[in-house]
Design goal:
By secondary structure, the protein is mainly alpha-helical. It contains four helices and no strands. The chain is elongated and about 55 Å long. The termini are far apart. The relative contact order is 0.12.
Amino acid sequence: MSSDLSISKFQRNMTVLTMMLGAFIVLLNQTLLTTALPDIMKTFELSLDNVQWLTTIFMLVNGIMIPISAYYTVRFSSKSLYLTAVTLFIIGTILYLVAPYYWMILIGRVVQAIGA
């Protein structure tokens, strides 16, 4: 009896490649911000304590989302979860990119972390 859910090797490899690429981009995003912190401090006239919240909030929200994502994997399909996560990450990145105020950057980082 054949299953309708079987996928080809190409589809499986492309799925794995897509997920690995997404994980790499999230990891890269976490590290790249560190090099930008001095410029962000100057641009928004922030103290070191305030600017460190950009990395701290990302890790905090990401840590909260890990157990929540386990619950979501039972309720929703992997495809819809992945597409939602990528969409949220892109929205957070765009918000972070165009933010004229520090609090908007912080919100962008929170949205990025939810997507990550």
